[in-house]
Amino acid sequence: SEAKNCLVDKHIVFIGDSRIRQLFYSFIKLINPQVKEEGNKHGNIPFEDKSASIKVDFLWYPEVNGSMRQRIKSWTESSVAKPHIIVAGAATWSIKIHNGSNEALTQYKINITSIAPLLEKLAKSSDVYWVLQDPVYEDMLSESRKMITNEKIDAYNEAAVRILNSSSRNSKAKVKVFSVSKLIAQETIMKSADGLHLPESSRDTNAMILMNVYCNKIMKPIDGSCCQPQPPLTLIQKLAFCFFTLSIIGYLIINLIHRNNFRKNKSCTDLESGEEKKPALSSPHVSTLEMLLHSFCKLGLIMTYFYLCDRANLFMKENKFYTHSSFFIPIVYILVLGVFYTENTKETKVLNREQTDEWKGWMQLVILIYHISGASTFLPVYMHIRVLVAAYLFQTGYGHFSYFWIKGDFGVYRVCQVLFRLNFLVVVLCIVMDRPYQFYYFVPLVTVWFMIIYATLAIWPQIVQKKANGNCLWHFGLVLKLICLLTCIYFLSYSQGAFEKVFSFWPLSKCFELNGNVYEWWFRWKLDRYVVFHGMLFAFIYLALQKRQMISEGKGDPLFSNTVSNVLLFISIVSFLTYSIWASSCKNKTECNELHPSVSVVQILAFILIRNIPGYVRSMYSSFFAWFGKISLELFICQYHIWLAADTKGILVLIPGYPMFNVLVSTFIFVCVAHEISQITNDLAQIVVPKDNSALLKRLLCIAGFFFGLLLFSVVQDQSRH
């Protein structure tokens, strides 16, 4: 279907010998796999796909001679419709017929010299490819082909490469030399049936690459790193580039001014007294403008690296190939490191800050290994990773519910702080990398769920722990709110139409559409629809038990009495293993995804109880995992472009030829960048979202203006694209 979409209304011509005929058949099988190789071997073979108006012809011209020249010349005449793609090549027949004589090579050079200007003329309006001759496997050649040697083939190829394009100075009017077939043949010709023609798998690869060469620049596939011109900078990208450039210049100017002032105030020796005069101490506080410019200066340099890695076609990308060892060996390695860096926690409460950071950290590292190893193809691993993603959302429900329930702080400052920290990096990447907001699906997911949690608790009546402690009836009020939330979730999950109507209103649709619709957003939301509710419910029950002192959270103490703790621990371990056995026995991804929203909470709760019931386990944490947990969001987002590549479809190659060294270098840079972006986000959050309400209101108006301008520019951009 992609081949048909690319080649609709196109005329393609293959002209040459039996090797070109092989390439022709492999090419048309990409359009129609049912095609049989039944045509006249030494004659012209037509092919047509009427549904897409595609016409592909093979023209039998086994030698580069006057006949081939006459056919090519006919296409250069203005009255004749020119083919859109021309694939030509021949040489082995000339070697065979003339018994490999030097005179035949001389005549080949003369003939190709006469054809070259015609091909170059056609190349101004069509895509013209000259296929170099593949090497042969001389030991398998029949007696009638023994004169076709690799030495002769190299001489003919050298002549073709030297003569073609020798007269053309216009880069757009050049014949493209298709040399990949020759490279593939060097590895596979020994599997040939006759020593001359390539095995079918190699021919198919050649045809696929030929299709990529022409179609990638038309179809612009997201995972295509070959044969695509660098996408032109959009208007928004140009404005972002100007902004970051001005920020860097502004910071350098302020820095130079400060250095100059420092030199003027530098202590100097009083010549009369011989004493050293010390300057007045400068203010230790860095100005807001300087911090702002410093942050944007660093961010600009980082975004340049992002762009170079995944938009500028500067670095190569490679495919992912899953093996069990590529996934499980790194898992064991980080597990050992995590256990090695074990420390005592500052507090021993259930899901304390250090423990949740640790949880986020090891989950994020496992998810990163899952992505780079391509383990999504292995269903048991995929199902366990889905639980890890669900666990992140569970923590979202648990953490935000706990904050609002205990603090009762529903102010705008808190909301803006959370929204800024969640979305800052993604908004910048949407601008710089020209990607829709929904592309970074996890951030829209946690953002929407945060707003749902906030709305559930902030809407009248506002029920918080302080109020509920005074009257137990408020607990029932909160339970009613949670039941209403669950009902809404259930309704939207089984009513795709209603869900799409909610998120299809402009300008909301600009945030949640991907490829022109909100289906992807609905699928992502539905996949973990109950787990945030489960997190909120768990927080409510846990905090109620904690308030009534029904659990023991002392250092080294089990969470409940010994009997209850042992029973719950046994049930948790059995539940955890049962889920893993079920996930490992999954045969159908669609069916397992349907069950996942309801059952993922089993393994999450089992893990929480296993991790917290024994007091000695609850009192310890891994500082190694906790460090990564503090930058888990940045790691998850940054991997899209500077660790993986082609928007997560491939792997970034900074150092070709050394895969292990490449992964080490790219990983080091990737982690450093994620850490730096986390620091930048924290610094900017203090400036952009101040605690003072009047200042915050002004900032919000500026942010609203920024997004309105962004929306306006995106509309103009979309219209120019269409």
Automatic annotation (TrEMBL):
It catalyses: CMP-N-acetyl-beta-neuraminate + acetyl-CoA = CMP-N-acetyl-9-O-acetyl-beta-neuraminate + CoA; CMP-N-acetyl-beta-neuraminate + acetyl-CoA = CMP-N-acetyl-7-O-acetyl-beta-neuraminate + CoA; a ganglioside GD3 (d18:1(4E)) + acetyl-CoA = a ganglioside Ac-O-7-GD3(d18:1(4E)) + CoA. InterPro entries: Cas1_AcylTrans_dom. Residues 219-700 form the Cas1p 10 TM acyl transferase domain. The keyword Transmembrane helix applies. It is an enzyme of class 2 (transferase). The chain crosses the membrane at residues 235-257, 321-341, 362-383, 389-406, 418-434, 440-460, 472-492, 527-545, 566-583, 625-645, 651-675, 696-716. It is a multi-pass membrane protein. It holds the Pfam family Cas1_AcylT. GO terms for biological process: carbohydrate metabolic process. GO terms for molecular function: N-acetylneuraminate 9-O-acetyltransferase activity. Its EC number is 2.3.1.45. One of its GO terms (cellular component) is Golgi membrane. The keyword Protein biosynthesis does not apply. It is found in: Golgi apparatus membrane. Keywords: Acyltransferase, Glycoprotein, Golgi apparatus, Membrane, Transferase, Transmembrane, Transmembrane helix. Belongs to the PC-esterase family. CASD1 subfamily. This is N-acetylneuraminate (7)9-O-acetyltransferase. It comes from Hemiprocne comata. The gene is Casd1.
